[in-house]
Each structure stands twice: as C-alpha cells, then as structure tokens.
Amino acid sequence: MIKAVIDANVWIGAAVANGVCRSVIEAFKQNLFIAIYPAHLLTELTDVFQRPKLKHIRPETTSELLKLIQLKAILISIPLEYSPSVSLDPKDNPYLACAHISNCDYLVTGDEKHLLCLGSYEETKIISPAQFLNILA
C-alpha cells in the first residue's frame, strides 16, 4: 500500500474547494493509500482554520477533517534530535522528517516555493496533488 504524508495545504485546499485536494482526501477515505502525519499538522490546521480569511469554512467541515486525520491517519513522533533543515520554510521540515522516518513513498503538497522544488527528500518523492491522483488512478 502506498504511504504518503499530506501537507497542510492539501488538507486546507480540501476544506476550501471541490478540486484535486478534495479528491486526494476522498481517495484517503476510500483507503487508496495510508496517510502519515506529524503532530505539527493538527496544530497548523487548527491555527490556519481560525484565520479571518477562512472563517467562511463551516466549523463542521474543519472538525470532520481533524477527526478524520486523528482516527484514520497514522501519527509519527519525530525525535527531538532529528530535525532536518532542508526547506526554506521551517514549518515544512516536520513533514520532511515525518516522511523520512516513516519511509513514505510520497509527500503530497501544493507548496511550489519550498517543497515541490526539492523533488525528493531521502527516499520520498515530493509531488503535487494532481500527480498523486494520477499515481493512484
């Protein structure tokens, strides 16, 4: 089974619009891959969903996403001594660490500026949601 870390921007995109990000989350719900996540994800999502520009998202939608992650995805604890400094955005490094520690096949993100530009990290390929959907098809 394919293992993937899904970046926060994909989860957020799934809550905002009916597009490729939502299709990735639907594929997860259908057990087409195993989602792995760092604890950092829940904190980041909670913070982002409280921003004024995202207040239009129904609270039920955000709580359903958070509950889905907690119940169905696999939480990976990242040892304090392991903290890669690969991305220019320090908030992305826990996703890279999580992908590496859990031997994930993919890190799925829409972050072109900090993650997609890397192409890969250790054995994990860094790809867009659209590319991931093509792989799952």
Outline the fold blueprint.
Layout lengths: L2 E4 L1 H9 L3 H10 L4 E5 L1 H10 L9 H14 L1 E3 L16 H9 L4 E3 L11 E2 L2 E4 L1 H8 L1
Helix pairs in contact: 1-2, 2-6
3D architecture notes:
By secondary structure, the chain is an alpha/beta fold. The protein contains 6 helices and 6 strands; from the N terminus they run βααβααβαβββα. It has helices at residues 8-16, 20-29, 40-49, 59-72, 93-101, 129-136; strands spanning 3-6, 34-38, 74-76, 106-108, 120-121, 124-127. It has a 6-stranded mixed β-sheet with strand order 3-2-1-4-6-5, with helices on both faces. A hairpin with a 2-residue loop joins strand 5 and strand 6 (124-127).
Number of domains: 1
Number of strands: 6
Share of β-strand residues? 15-25%
* CATH architecture designation: 3-Layer(aba) Sandwich
- State the end-to-end CA separation: 13 Å
Name the helix and strand elements from N-terminus to C-terminus, one letter apiece.
Answer: EHHEHHEHEEEH
Work out the radius of gyration.
14 Å
Query: For the residues shown, what is the average pLDDT?
Result: 94
CATH homolog superfamily: 5'-nuclease
Apparent shape:
globular
Structural class estimated from helices and strands: alpha/beta
Tell me the major beta sheet.
6 strands, mixed
Tell me the strand order in the biggest sheet.
3-2-1-4-6-5
How many helices? The count is 6
Runs in which pLDDT lies below 50 for 5 or more consecutive residues are none
Which fold name corresponds to the CATH topology? Answer: Rossmann fold
Identify the CATH class: Alpha Beta
- Percent helix among the residues? 40-55%
